[in-house]
Amino acid sequence: MQIKQGGVTAGDLNLKKYFLAKNLKKDLPAGLVVFLVALPLCLGIALASGAPLFSGILAGIIGGIVVGTISGSQLSVAGPAAGLTVIVLNSITKLGSFESFLLCVAIAGAMQIILGLVKAGTIANYFPSSVIEGMLAAIGIILIMKQFPHAVGYDKDYEGDEGFSQMDTENTFSGIFSAFSKINSGAVIIALVSLAIMIYWPKVKKLAMIPAPLLVVVLGTVLASVFAGTSLALLDKQFVQIPLVHSTNEFFGLFKSPDFSGLSNKQVWITAATIAIVASLETLLSLEAVDKIDPIKRISPTNRELVAQGAGNLVSGLLGGLPMTAVIVRSSANVNAGARTKVSAVFHGVLLLVCLLAIPSVLNKIPLSCLAAILLTVGYKLARIGLFKHMWHKGLDQFIPFVITIVAVVLTDLLIGVGIGMLVGVFYILRTNMRNPYFYTIGRNGDKNTIRIKLAEEVSFLNKAAIQITLTGLPKGSDVVIDGSNSRYIDPDVLEIINNYRHNAYTKGIIVQLHEIKERYDIPPLKDLVYKPE
């Protein structure tokens, strides 16, 4: 007999504790991996944005703790995004101070909360699957290409850059070639050892309880110390460079407040709206992509995510942090590390805060080449050969948008590349839609053809041309039945074509019958057209 406790049985409570403990065994190590990946990315993006390094770390902390707590996504991880660096850099220059820019971040956060409340996140339902798959593969390829220079010790470009054109006047390809001419042997050895650990360590079940990335960082740090003072020694810029905090007063002195006198400045509101739109789009794209690679195949609530991101940006702007989005690189690392719930995202934010306060000097001994090895393995899993084979077998209407998205993202940046992929994906969707407005059957009734055209469930104006061509091409002297019994909606333009054809068909000896076709149809509610589980 089970004892009821507030409507829940003791057995249910035990089961809940069991799954919580089981998830924690996966979430805490995954949070550690995300922390290791996020640390240099936060610093690199802050550096590229022309903002204080602390603002990048602060955005990572808030993205983990605040956004992670509010978000309904179990695997998405938020933080400062590479896609916003140009906007941040230009905005700080235009506004004249970092404090004025912080006001933009806070306002952008409020705008995102409003977007979530008015359910603007529904737009995520319209991202074609082939484009999302292409974005994931492109991010994987970018990680491999961008992390290779860091793996061999060439660190001219900032950590976390995703754009094709780099701020160091190089591009992705020329950066790789430049890296070959400036290889650091010590960094290469650390990267190769790290890659070997990342590949083979998880295959040994007895050893897999120790996360491979943790071992990579420990061993990489030890090797860097051993190489010090030798020909294999690493340069200072080839290590993590987190700001050192020596006292409580110094720590609180790092926080900055927005300059609220800029509320009357038109440029502040334009910048805030730009950040809100770009950050929301990148968040929704990342969220959709993470749901694709979630092994449990959960669906994240998009509107709640916009509210969570808005809350994060509002807090970040008020405390002195960079704007943030859901970030596919960190989220992918989270999934690949085996995370099960959002505890991992929150834990990574806590680790960023604790390590900033307690052991910054220890973190500064971690070589970037071993962290690059972790990201290289993440990149390979995102852009695996099997994914290309899978998309090829789906047909050209899926494969072509997939490939074009990859090429576009790699050669431009995330949002522009996805935009190009969306245009191609929508073209194929419209092309397929125009080809399938009906089912067509031909029979015989004595000497006459009997043609039955059964219209689809939804017949939009996009089907107008296909139906017009079909009706015009019907053979003379036929009996034609146009069946609308399956249709919930027929566009007025299509109805006009059908009625005009019925009135004029007698001139060709064609007899037309309309079966269950109404004079007019009301547009179905959006909730009936788009289905997404709660």
From TrEMBL:
Presence of the UniProt keyword Ligase in the record: no
Biological process terms in GO annotation: transmembrane transport
Predominant cellular place of this UniProt entry's protein: membrane
Any Gene Ontology CC annotation: membrane
Keyword Transmembrane helix appears in the UniProt entry: yes
Keyword terms: Membrane, Transmembrane, Transmembrane helix
Topology within the bilayer: Multi-pass membrane protein
Pfam family, one: Sulfate_transp
SLC26A/SulP transporter domain sequence ranges: 24-400
Subcellular location: Membrane
Domain of life of the native organism: Bacteria
Transmembrane segments: 28-47, 53-70, 98-118, 130-148, 183-202, 214-235, 268-290, 311-333, 345-363, 370-387, 399-430
Protein name: SulP family inorganic anion transporter
Protein species of origin: Mucilaginibacter phyllosphaerae
